[in-house]
C-alpha cells in the first residue's frame, strides 16, 4: 500500500512545489467531459494550467506549444481514437516527460490493456472518475518514474545489470503473458459483477496493478537495452 506521505510528496511535486503550476492537456471531443475532468482535478487537489483539444488536429497544435506534465487522452474521438493520440504524443519531441493517461468507458478492457502496453502511465474509467482515482493515477506515475530513474542510474553497478538481464530473458516474457491473461480474466469477472460496488472496486485495483506491472517489465527491458528515454543516448528526460 502506498504511504500517504509519499503520495503527498508526489502531489506537491506535481503542483509545482510552489513554482509555476504544471501544464495539463485534456484531449476530449466532448466539452462537458473536459469540464468534468477539470472539476475532478480541482477536488483531487491538483492545480494545473489547463489546455484543451477536441480533435487530433487541435491536439497536434497544442503539443507544439509547450511540454506538458500530464496529458489526458479520451479514447472516443469521432473517427479517431485515443490510441492514435497516444502514438502522436509519444513521438513528439516536447512531450518526452509527459504522463499519459487514457480515459476509457466501462467494458473497454482490450483498449486498457493495449494502452498500458503502448506507453500509457495509467488509465481512468470515465463512468467512475473521482478524486481518489485521479490522485492515484498521478502520484503512481511520479513514483514509478523516480524508481525507473534510480534503476537506470544503477543498473551497471555490481551484479545488478547481470541479474536484470537474466530475469528479463528467463522470467519476464512468461510473466508478461500471465499478466495479460490475468487482466482479461479479472475484467470478465468485473463485467459479471453487475452493480456490486465492492467487487467492481476490487477488480479495478487488480486490473490496474497488473497493467502497471506489465508496463514496468517493458520499461525494465528498455533500460537493460539502453533504449529507455531515461537512460538512452537520445533520451529526453535528462535533457536540460
Detailed description of the structure:
This protein is of the alpha/beta class and 240 residues long. The protein has two domains: 4-148, Rossmann fold (3-Layer(aba) Sandwich); 155-225. The protein is built from nine helices and seven strands, in the order αβαβαβββαβαβαααα. The strands form two sheets. The protein has a five-stranded parallel sheet with strand order 2-1-3-6-7, with helices on both faces. A two-stranded antiparallel sheet has the order 4-5. Strand 6 (99-104), helix 5 (109-117) and strand 7 (122-125) form a beta-alpha-beta unit. Helix 1 packs across helix 6. The longest helix has 29 residues, at 197-225. The model is unreliable at 231-240 (pLDDT under 50).
Concise synopsis of the structure shown:
By secondary structure, the chain is of the alpha/beta class. Helix content is 57%, strand content 12%. It has 9 helices and 7 strands.
Sheet with the most strands, sense and barrel status: 5 strands, parallel
CATH topology of the largest domain: Rossmann fold
CATH superfamily of the largest domain: Response regulator
Q: What is the strand arrangement across the widest sheet? A: 2-1-3-6-7
CATH architecture of the largest domain: 3-Layer(aba) Sandwich
Order of helices and strands: HEHEHEEEHEHEHHHH
Principal-axis shape: globular
Structural class: alpha/beta
Instruction: Give the count of helical stretches.
Output: 9
Roughly what percent helix?
55-70%
The span between the termini is: 34 Å
- The share of residues in extended strands comes to 5-15%
CATH class value of the largest domain: Alpha Beta
Nearest-angstrom radius of gyration? 18 Å
The counted number of beta strands is: 7
Unreliable sequence segments: 231-240
Average of pLDDT:
75
Overall structural domain count: 2
Keywords: Phosphoprotein
Protein name: Response regulator
Pfam families: Response_reg
Amino acid at each position: 500500500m502506498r504511504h500517504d506521505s509519499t503520495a503527498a510528496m508526489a502531489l506537491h511535486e506535481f503542483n509545482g512545489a510552489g513554482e509555476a503550476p504544471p501544464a495539463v492537456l485534456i484531449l476530449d471531443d466532448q466539452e462537458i467531459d473536459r469540464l468534468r475532468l477539470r472539476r475532478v482535478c480541482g477536488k483531487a487537489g491538483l492545480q494545473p494550467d489547463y489546455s484543451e483539444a477536441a480533435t487530433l488536429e487541435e491536439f497536434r497544435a497544442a503539443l507544439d506549444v509547450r511540454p506538458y506534465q500530464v496529458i489526458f487522452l479520451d479514447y472516443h474521438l469521432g473517427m479517431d481514437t485515443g490510441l492514435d493520440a497516444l502514438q502522436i504524443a509519444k513521438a513528439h519531441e516536447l512531450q518526452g516527460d509527459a504522463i499519459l493517461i487514457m480515459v476509457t468507458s466501462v467494458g473497454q478492457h482490450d483498449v486498457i490493456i493495449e494502452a498500458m502496453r503502448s506507453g500509457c502511465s495509467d488509465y481512468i474509467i470515465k463512468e467512475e472518475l473521482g478524486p481518489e482515482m485521479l490522485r492515484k493515477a498521478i502520484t503512481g506515475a511520479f513514483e514509478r518514474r523516480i524508481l525507473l530513474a534510480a534503476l537506470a542510474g544503477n543498473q551497471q553497478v555490481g551484479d545488478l545489470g547481470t541479474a536484470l538481464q537474466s530475469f528479463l530473458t528467463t522470467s519476464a516474457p512468461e510473466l508478461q503473458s500471465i499478466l495479460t491473461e490475468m487482466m482479461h480474466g479479472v475484467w470478465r469477472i468485473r463485467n459479471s459483477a453487475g452493480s456490486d460496488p465492492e467487487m467492481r472496486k476490487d477488480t479495478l485495483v487488480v486490473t490496474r496493478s497488473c497493467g502497471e506491472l506489465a508496463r514496468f517489465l517493458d520499461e525494465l527491458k528498455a533500460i537493460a537495452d539502453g533504449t529507455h528515454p531515461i537512460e538512452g543516448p537520445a533520451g529526453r528526460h535528462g535533457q536540460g
